[in-house]
Design goal:
The protein is an alpha+beta fold and about 350 residues long. Helix content is about 20%, strand content about 25%. The protein has 7 helices and 17 strands. An 11-stranded mixed β-sheet has the order 13-12-11-1-2-10-7-6-5-17-16, sandwiched between helices. The protein has a two-stranded antiparallel sheet with strand order 3-4.
């Protein structure tokens, strides 16, 4: 599971488990949460919490309430959100949505994380998982095949990019924010590059920083996920590496501190300073006071109502609820998508 993350370059992305990331291309004064001036750095707490709330909402199992934005988590800082497309890969238990946040003047993409009942096995696998996949068209860059395949080889990639294109046709070339928690955070990194547990090595982190320069990863307390897979500073190209910049949220002398970390992506004074013997799974399920888990993990079930059937297409075990027509081609993940319009 990756921590929360947000990105802003014309694109904004964020992940939510131990870290949050924000990436975006193109900025507006009223919506930019991260500013750089030399070595200075300004962190916007309200924006970060707003994106955490979106990453929390995508965990909801009642698709009708989620699609109509009437769910129990569809309020507070996310009120007024316009849902454009709700995407569910039933077979792989993946879920995401695309919509417009008018108060941010941005398109928001939220990707769901891992089921709570499989977290411990997922973490155990990450401890031993090695970099095993070369990132396309990027020399020496390697990533976690499971994270990349969940995004690239399922319905998510093509359905999300299709929905973003259609939203931009309606609202113009506005910013795109991608947010996700846990595994959803890892997939948000790949999505941000298209339009962190650690998802790749140092070469990948450098590539990401180049194309998604204004990025934040929010990590929480002793959350174990930002420490997985393990990081070995003496093997920079053979180990996983977070991209910058980390904001470590932790308790300090009885107060909650949001500590701005350096631009290395692996600041030893931030969450990396936590001993491996005091890491916590519980810290993974709450970020900035927001629950980051599903409302019901009894099954990977979905709930829908007859009233929304007109928005629903079911194709090869995938469900898409959208206000626009859904192209059948988007459920063919083997096809490569031309994403040049996002760059």
């Amino acid at each position: 599971m990756a921590p929360p993350a947000f990105a802003y370059p014309t694109l904004q992305a964020n992940q939510l488990p131990c870290a949050a990331q924000i990436a975006r291309k193109g900025r507006r004064k009223d919506e930019l949460p991260v500013k750089k001036s030399g070595q200075s750095f300004v962190y916007n707490h309200t924006l970060a919490k707003t994106l955490v709330e979106y990453a929390s909402a995508v965990y909801m199992t009642d698709l009708t309430a989620l699609y109509t934005w009437t769910c129990s988590r569809c309020n507070d800082l996310t009120q007024g959100f316009e849902m454009r497309s709700l995407i569910v890969d039933v077979e792989n238990c993946l879920q995401a949505f695309v919509g417009v946040a008018h108060n941010l003047n941005s398109i928001v993409v939220a990707i769901r994380g891992t089921q709570e009942n499989s977290v411990q096995n997922w973490i155990k696998d990450l401890i031993w998982k090695q970099l095993d996949l070369s990132y396309p068209n990027m020399p020496n860059a390697k990533v976690h095949s499971g994270f990349f395949s969940s995004y690239n080889n399922t319905i998510l990639r093509l359905a999300i990019t299709s929905a973003v294109r259609k939203a931009r046709k309606s609202y113009g070339n506005i910013n795109v924010i991608v947010t996700g928690h846990s595994m959803g955070g890892a997939m948000a990194s790949f999505c941000a590059l298209d339009l962190a547990p650690r998802v790749g090595n140092a070469a990948f982190a450098s590539y990401f920083a180049k194309y998604v320069p204004n990025t934040i990863r929010v990590t929480h307390g002793h959350d174990i996920v930002p420490h997985l897979p393990p990081y070995f500073s003496f093997l920079p190209q053979l180990t996983y590496h977070h991209f910058p910049r980390e904001v470590w949220v932790h308790d300090s002398e009885g107060n909650t501190t949001e500590q701005i970390c350096d631009n290395s992506g692996e600041d030893p004074k931030c969450c990396r300073c936590i001993s491996m013997f005091s890491l916590s799974i519980q810290d993974h399920f709450t970020y900035l006071g927001v629950d980051m888990e599903a409302d019901d993990w009894s099954t990977c079930r979905i709930i829908g109502a007859q009233s929304v059937k007109k928005f629903q297409k079911e194709l090869t075990s995938n469900i898409i609820m959208a206000k626009h027509n859904v192209d059948v081609s988007i459920v063919e993940p083997s096809k490569q998508t031309d994403l040049s319009s996002f760059r």
